[in-house]
Amino acid sequence: MKKIINDPETVVREALRGMQAAHSDLLTVHHDPAVVVRADAPVRGKVAIISGGGSGHEPLHGGFVGRGMLSAACPGPVFTSPTSDQVVDAIARTDGGAGALLVVKNYTGDVLNFEMAAELAESEVRSVVIDDDVAVQDSSYTAGRRGVGGTVLLEKIVGAAAERGDDLAACEALALRVISSVRSMGLALTACTVPHVGSPSFELADDEMEIGIGIHGEPGRRKVKTGSASEMVSALLEPILEDLPFSSGDRVLLFTNGMGGTPLLELYLAHGIAEQLLADRGITVERRLVGPYITSLEMQGMSLTLLRLDDEMVELWDAPVHTAALRWGV
Amino acid sequence: MKKIINDPETVVREALRGMQAAHSDLLTVHHDPAVVVRADAPVRGKVAIISGGGSGHEPLHGGFVGRGMLSAACPGPVFTSPTSDQVVDAIARTDGGAGALLVVKNYTGDVLNFEMAAELAESEVRSVVIDDDVAVQDSSYTAGRRGVGGTVLLEKIVGAAAERGDDLAACEALALRVISSVRSMGLALTACTVPHVGSPSFELADDEMEIGIGIHGEPGRRKVKTGSASEMVSALLEPILEDLPFSSGDRVLLFTNGMGGTPLLELYLAHGIAEQLLADRGITVERRLVGPYITSLEMQGMSLTLLRLDDEMVELWDAPVHTAALRWGV
Amino acid sequence: MGCTAADVIAAIRAAAVVVQEHRDELVRLDQAIGDADHGENMRRGFTAVLSRLDTEPPDTPAKVLKLVATTLISTVGGAAGPLYGTAFLRASSAVGDLAELDGDAVARALRAALDGVVARGKAVVGDKTMVDALTPAVTAAACAEGTAAAALSAAADAAAEGATSTVPMVARKGRASYLGDRSAGHMDPGARSTALLLRALADAAAKA
Amino acid sequence: MGCTAADVIAAIRAAAVVVQEHRDELVRLDQAIGDADHGENMRRGFTAVLSRLDTEPPDTPAKVLKLVATTLISTVGGAAGPLYGTAFLRASSAVGDLAELDGDAVARALRAALDGVVARGKAVVGDKTMVDALTPAVTAAACAEGTAAAALSAAADAAAEGATSTVPMVARKGRASYLGDRSAGHMDPGARSTALLLRALADAAAKA
Ligand SMILES: Nc1ncnc2c1ncn2[C@@H]1O[C@H](COP(=O)(O)OP(=O)(O)O)[C@@H](O)[C@H]1O
Ligand SMILES: Nc1ncnc2c1ncn2[C@@H]1O[C@H](COP(=O)(O)OP(=O)(O)O)[C@@H](O)[C@H]1O
Ligand SMILES: [Mg+2]
Ligand SMILES: [Mg+2]
Ligand SMILES: [Mg+2]
Ligand SMILES: [Mg+2]
């Protein structure tokens, strides 16, 4: 295992310490339970936007704590949902009197722990569950689709709404609108190694890739032969387009995400291909985000996320944001 | 080879196309010869700050083109210096009447190509050569030290000086001051694979790392057993501290850089350790940068860069910057 | 003779040791069809349980079970944390303020635990989860006569069979469901940990 | 009988083919002690030379050499681009407006090329660079009597020996110098490409 760590047990705690040192102007890290809170919390009268999940997806979620985005993030151990205690603590530290919206990625562990927290919290709490991964067949009898890349876009847009003063019901409604308008899919060229496991999460031959992966180093829906970048981008984009479906005339935000170990050079290359494919379909890319924003440790691979935009979403996307990982207008 | 590419020959061209699509508000990409130019160039009366080098180090240099940083970047093929034609073209496109400063990383190829360009250009041109890598033994009989992480800091600080209107001589003098105050060192846990080669640049056993690497996938000064994060950080920081030397009371910028394939989680962890070591020495970390900003494709590893700050450098570091990879204050 | 608070503490301690011993096995099972953390999650949780039992040993069976519940809830995370936490919380309520647990109390506690898991996780038998181990265990405990040890032993045997039955199943709940058909051919880690826990509790109760 | 522009073009074409054939070998040599691009850099450059020779065939030896120079400068990049570019540029100047090149002209051209490389790169014999191949080649060509082919053949033999001599050297110039002692034991890729180019030019000249 090739990692810059001291001890698998203390990885997250030590990383949070480094994060605190790097960004003390933006955020405050609390330990036991672990919560990353924006430095000026609670903000009076503002809805608290809270998310969290396993660590190993950096910069998600701690890197999105700050003005115009998250009020707090609850980091679990690597690839393991945080506990309800962490979420309860995050709510208590950030509720400025306007309640809290919990942004939950659809994984059984996340859903159950956030649900328990909502039951235990003393604040007014609403939860939204994001499930944008089209790789997973949906049905009311299964765990349903996973929450992946769309989470980043939701946190930015709903974070901006809370910052301008939208109330809890409005933030929740907006979050649901984003969820109904966003779709994602990912692929992996290599596996990743969870520190406490010490071996790669799956095996892939030199000419194989996993299509339809999530963000937890889990294998995808199918193993296929690797292909050209154009083939890979199509393999991700086609199912996304069919699913919503997106159609000619739509205005979209295109998010080309790296899984952690894929160079930016390749992400830009893939992004260019995706923009071309969308242009060919008559879909207008109005906003874009390119980079590793929701990752699986050192996994090589990428995901594409498409969000159908309306005017309000564009305005909120463009609104100022000041976090460790996303910053503009301030 | 696991890469999201179509053809090794067209990687850089296609990636530049994607970059153009993603950042058309910031920059304009020209092909034949390949040059990335800030969208509003030439800026009248402003010194043009121009850099470049092999591709594969993204976001360096194209990601630093924009207001408050580079006027243009000249991307060579992967890990290969750009040609003098590219540099000549970049100068012609960005000189706003105040001349151009060429920021050259100290590699024979970069130095020779930028030197030829300076001879051929019609503008007033000065060049500075950055050589901050303490891993390389320096001597007037060798190629000298490589330019690595310090390049990013130099481009930001000198870019800000040019933006506020400093003239060519002042920009050059400031660049030389940064060069004399900055030191770096890196390590690799894994090699990387250059697209046109198709196999890893060196072999490392599961318990080995290369100490004293550059940024071109070249092997380092020595192969050693991997150790804890604390040992790795010390192995990088001690030679840096001794070299300048840095001493108690110094104010510094600490830049914890990822080589491309190392997760942010590990970078923050390493950063926290480095901050602690510096605090123990009585050195004050006043500014910091953490992330993959000067990379070697998908290589796992990190580098540390320390810049001794003065008031002017702090002011210029904090000045607004608007590029694809660094943005604040705007 | 029933199980006192001290006996329950001893049984939980024994279970904690078994969880630690089987950490890597549970990680491997979860690596095949999940995210490779179940063994580490359970180890972390039960290590915390051990340390809390040292510092604040409770004096009734219900309080022991409640301590386990709250500790698991605040340290395990993942799906298993709330599920096992809820299971122990409901089991704690089910045994009320009894000073000693007999077979009947154990059967009631297991039934309540299962109900809690189902209420939270909405899984049914055949979904390839811990419910596939716990459901037959509840039935077996109810049919067993007599001591807590006898009820737990029957439950443990049934849970082991239930865990084995998950191997060919295609998962419909939890992370393994994302794999679709590829989830078949592997034992569910949560079902396996349920069987391990019940076996450890049964063996400890037999020694009490 | 000397080499005409057409002969020089044919020789350059032959050299380009040899560079393409040895691309992978040069990449491997550079991978060991550099950054694995020398073969690709040279291939890219000489492919561009071929295509420019097709579209705008020059009519004097000097013009052919100048076309090679400017094409390499604008397409090779790295250290090799400016160095080989300068070498061909100086060689072009050295042969002036001769319509045909004899052994003497070849010797002068090689000497000028070496001077250009040293002026740019500041390397001396023993630094483990192309200078270690080019320096003995210049001497050998100067001592050879007669035709261009004879001069080039002597130069090529000497360059091959010079390239071999770089194997045990510790590099003091170029990327290989970063490796310190670890650079010993490998042939310098630029010295090897110099030897390959001269051999190809010599063989083509012999056929002219
Ligand atoms: N909805 C559910 N109902 C019951 N048990 C479940 C459910 N979802 C998951 N599980 C159980 O949880 C186990 C996984 O636990 P663990 O790996 O610790 O958490 P996570 O899946 O969040 O990584 C599965 O093996 C399964 O037995
Ligand atoms: N200062 C120098 N003088 C002469 N030749 C040099 C010098 N530096 C490097 N070289 C030659 O250039 C070759 C490397 O070329 P190449 O790999 O194409 O460029 P780069 O080193 O920039 O990747 C070396 O093998 C060596 O022969
Ligand atoms: Mg998990
Ligand atoms: Mg090179
Ligand atoms: Mg798991
Ligand atoms: Mg090279």
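^ magnesium ion complex. The pocket of magnesium ion (ligand 6) is lined by residues D 30, 34-35, 37-38, 78, 175 (CB under 6 Å). Residues 156 and 198 of chain C are 5 Å apart (CA to CA).
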